[in-house]
Specification:
Blueprint: E1 4-9, H1 13-36, H2 42-64, E2 66-72, E3 75-81, E4 88-91, E5 95-102, H3 105-109, E6 113-115, E7 124-127, E8 132-138, E9 143-147, H4 151-161
Parallel strand pairs: 7-9
Antiparallel strand pairs: 1-2, 2-3, 3-4, 5-8, 6-7, 8-9
Helix pairs in contact: 1-2
């Protein structure tokens, strides 16, 4: 029995720099406004606090987000924490076609993360980085692409279970 397990996080340097710059800039501007504010406008202060908390929440979301994929004799399981609190299970019987492919994250799905499309041709995607994915086509006609950074390992494991499809 072969088992494939992969965990991916948003580790792109450009994304980390962007998050830090936006967080620091937003907090600095709000802090300066708050200090300069001569009146004690409570609603402005509450609005500022909500903005800072929102920025920090978005930063934390990217920091803690994790895509976990597991492939074994039962099928494929995936979890994109914090959006999925448990593994989503796909049995081999639900899949009619599977392949590892290169895709255009921005052109096909509009970027990375949980990507829902209205295109029956493309389907949905769950990805964190890169442009390699496990393309699933289900017996009901729906499609799902799960991003991976381990193309060769995935292909070897899928070769083992191709008779189950």
């Amino acid at each position: 029995m072969k088992v494939f397990i992969e965990e991916q996080r948003f580790k792109q340097i450009w994304l980390q720099v962007l998050l830090i710059i936006t967080s620091v800039t937003t907090i600095a501007i709000i802090t300066e406004e708050w200090i300069r504010s001569s009146d004690q406008n409570t609603s402005a202060h509450i609005s500022s606090i909500i903005t800072v908390c929102s920025v920090l929440l978005i930063h934390a979301l990217f920091h803690f987000a994790k895509l976990t994929t597991r492939i074994d004799e039962n099928g494929i399981q995936y979890q994109f924490f914090p959006f999925h609190f448990s593994m989503k299970k796909i049995t081999w019987a639900e899949i009619c076609q599977i392949k590892v492919r290169t895709y255009n994250p921005i052109g096909e799905y509009g970027g990375w993360g949980l990507r829902y499309t209205f295109s029956k041709k493309r389907g949905n995607a769950i990805n964190v980085s890169g442009d390699i994915g496990i393309q699933l086509e289900f017996t009901n006609g729906k499609k799902l692409l799960i991003g991976t950074q381990k193309k060769e390992e995935v292909q070897r494991v899928l070769e083992t279970y191709k008779t189950k499809i």
